[in-house]
Amino acid sequence: MSGLRYGWTTGACATAATTAAYTALLSGEFPDPVEITLPKDKHPSFALAREALGDGWAMAAIVKDAGDDPDVTHGALIASTVRPGAPASGVTFLAGPGVGTVTKPGLPLPVGEPAINPVPRRLMTGHIAEVAARHGGTGDVVVEISVEGGAELALKTWNPRLGILGGLSILGTTGVVVPYSCSAWIDSIRRGIDVARAAGHPHVAGCTGSTSEQVASTLYGLPDDALLDMGDFAGAVLKYLRRHPIPRLTIVGGIGKLSKLADGHLDLHSGRSQVNLTLLATLAAEAGAPPDLIPQIKSANTALHALRLCQAATIPLGDLVATHAQNTARTVLTGAPVSVDVIVIDRAGTIVGRSSAIGQ
Asked: Do 17 and 25 touch, CB atoms closer than 8 A?
């Protein structure tokens, strides 16, 4: 993905807005553009989209630029309103309109706190101290972060399932959005596992999409916060569970993606792994497929096409794929007290394959 333009996280934008607002609160002037310092010695500048200064408060807002990453928050207006706090109170964070509040345990913030993650909090607190030193302030402030339209945008994210209600989270560990790194999705997977563990769920399902989720929910009666929307990131689920185990994992997905897992791939995206039709033909042959079926499988259009060919010949290709995908998952989970089983579905959500005994 070389040549793609990097962007800035919601945490970086909130830090820049807070820095500008606090500077104006102390000096009467908004720095525009406002420069901040991020980890790894980055010093980006942000233009202010809005600013306002009143009696005992200042507000600055910045439009988030996610670069060339397909980020749901690209173009969102992130605002910070800063007011003086009580003496020796330090920095207090509030969730303004469009920023969520934590309602479930297991996240890196206590229940009841604004969904402003620890690293953005540290960034803002550090910049507030610098502004206070520069302009003679105390650093005791109340910072209210808001995101215009954030409540609606949050419905397109994991937040409702994670128990973050009312809006978006203010995120970012480096302040930089790397195009197509999908770091936010992987972070959401990890937080989903954290929430499931905190809730005491003994069984979670890693699902490749909404149809897979429906199958897992119907089959096992799993609650929403036990359903992990893993998308293409099977590896992210397995590696995090290896370090933070839950007793049982069920992986549910279509024949195409799970054929890749069966082939040892942990990233199931079409741009980063391909279905190995030769492997599917080999599995079918080992299961007793007639010789004339093997070349048909190797030249099939898709994994689903190969499955249909095998179904017509009563060869349980779906079960074979599920079992080999289970073996891949077990390899990644080696040493962790996590049992894993795999369910393969077609596009209609019909189960077309299941792994053998759950086991480890």
From this structure: no
- Residue 318 near residue 258, CB atoms below 8 Å: no
Question: According to the model, what pLDDT value does residue 219 have?
Answer: 95
Quote the tokens at residue 287: 């299961």
Looking at the chain, the number of H-run helices and the number of E-run strands are: 12, 18
Q: CA–CA separation, 269 vs 117, rounded Å?
A: 28
pTM of the model: 0.77
The pair of structure tokens assigned to 57 is 């408060």
Strand partners, 35: 45
Q: 83: helix, coil or strand?
A: strand
Q: What are the pLDDT digits (tens) for 1-55?
A: 446 678 889 999 999 999 999 999 999 999 999 999 998 888 999 999 999 999 9
Find where tokens 């590696």 sit.
239
Interatomic CA distance for residues 183 and 169, integer angstroms:
14
Cα 234–chain centre separation: 13
Residue type, 254: G
The DSSP string of 90-103 is -EEEEE-TEE-EE-
